[in-house]
Amino acid sequence: MGNAILGQSEWIIMEKLWEQQPRTIMQLFHSLEVDPGWSKSTVNTLLGRMVDKGIIDYEDGGKARQYYPKIRREEAALAETEHLLSRVYKGSVGMMMSTLVRKRDLTKEEIQELYDILDGLEGRKE
Predict the structure, then answer these.
(1) 31 within 8 A of 40, measured Cβ to Cβ
(2) Could you tell me if 68 and 22 are in contact, meaning their C-beta atoms sit under 8 angstroms apart?
(3) What is residue 103's predicted lDDT score, i.e. its pLDDT?
(4) What stretches of 1-126 show up as alpha helix (H) in DSSP?
(5) 19-22 contacts at long range (C-beta below 8 A, 24 or more positions apart)
(6) I need a surface site. Which of 1, 8, 18, 30 has the fewest CB within 10 A?
(7) Closest residue by Cα to residue 28 from 64, 81, 78
(8) Cα dihedral: 81, 82, 86, 87 (round 10)
(9) For the residues 6-19, what does the mean pLDDT come to?
């Protein structure tokens, strides 16, 4: 799936499916009825839309459909990041990183992690 931009409600359901799959509508409903407080019909409607979008699918299993994700969490996170980068930072990775680094107090470990990521990229380009 190329461009997996998820809405807020879709993220909530996907987190449940990435955590444990497959799940039935009742399993999803029970995990979502208190927080965020959705009804069974809301969960059912969202699942139908997500199937139509191609981000989840189901298998008919016994009494109930078994829903599972068709995209990995990493794919969705990458699509969201690319969308944010394009929309907010006009495609500039440098501008996005500068904003994030200046607004957060990074630990020494986080700074080292950034250096390691950049060193890894430099090695690939040589």
Answers:
(1) no
(2) yes
(3) 78
(4) 8-19, 25-32, 40-53, 73-89, 93-103, 108-125
(5) 21/67, 21/68, 21/69, 22/58, 22/59, 22/61, 22/66, 22/67, 22/68
(6) 8
(7) 64
(8) -40
(9) 96
